[in-house]
Amino acid sequence: LLMQTSEMLRKICTRNLVRKYCRGLTAERKVQLQQKVVTSAVFSGKKEGYLESLSQPFLETRLKESDLNPKVLQLIRGENIKYVTPVIKYDRNGFKARERLLVLTQSSAYVVEMAKIKQKIEYSTLKGISTSNLSDGIVVIHVPEDKQQKGDVILQCEHIFETVTKLCILANKQSLVKVVKGSLRFRVGSGKEGTMVFSVGPEPQVFKDKTGQLTVV
User: Fold this and answer.
1) What pLDDT band is residue 18 in, cutting at 50, 70 and 90?
2) Which of 8, 24, 70, 116 is such that its CA lies 20 to 30 A from the CA of 205?
3) 195-208, pLDDT tens digit by residue?
4) Phi and psi (nearest 5°) for 91?
5) How far, in Å, CA of 61 to CA of 11, rounded?
6) Does the predicted TM-score (pTM) go above 0.85?
7) 3-state DSSP call for residue 180?
8) How remote is the C-alpha of 7 from its chain's centroid?
């Protein structure tokens, strides 16, 4: 009986401590924890660098709305901008690296070049999000095969865990995130596909190899 009473009191005490901790959390801290839970579900035990990312709080955004070109803001007016970050976009054919911005709103993802919107992906049409199991910052956003889309989007992000977490939460597509090993296929457009190969080397690099594949080291 004493042991049962002691166990009951211990549970009550633990519950009270948890309740006190939760009530003391700021709104910002709650959002952080909610996002980190999603990051854990997607990446824990799957991608290199995840453990090191745990102590790094996510920022609300990497660039402010005021940092965007007024023409871009006009084009996406009416949409609530949630997150903006600089990215490197790789062309689907020649794999040339281009400096771009990734803008995430409440309903769509935009790849932006200065004052131009290069590609818009509505979350409702998003088919998947792929990353490798290595420590690179590559993410592929898979889009449907239709005339409105040029093909899948290949991006390199400095804050890969933060960016992918924000994207899959806003799109409500957590289950569509895949962490792959070795290689992945992406759609180039017009029914064509390309291959991306991931490997380990002495220094990070992304290049087109002799066979025409995009190699990420």
Assistant:
1) low
2) 116
3) 999 999 998 999 88
4) -55, 145
5) 39
6) yes
7) strand
8) 43
Count of structural domains within the chain: 1
Token pair for 13 = 């005490």
Q: Does residue 117 contact residue 110 with C-beta atoms inside 8 Å?
A: yes
The CA distance from 25 to 55, in Å, is 17
Q: What is the mean pLDDT of residues 180-190?
A: 89
In a domain, 26, yes or no: yes
Give the closest residue to 107 by CA, choosing from 169, 157, 170, 152: 170
Write out the residue range of the structural domain in which residue 19 sits: 2-181
Confirm if 39 and 169 have CB atoms less than 8 A apart. no
Distances from the Cα of 56 to the Cαs of 26, 90, 162, 209, in angstroms?
18, 27, 10, 34
Asked if residue 105 is part of any domain, the answer here is yes
* 61 falls within a domain: yes
- Integer Cα distance of 27 and 23 in angstroms: 10
Is the pLDDT at 212 greater than 90, yes or no? Answer: no
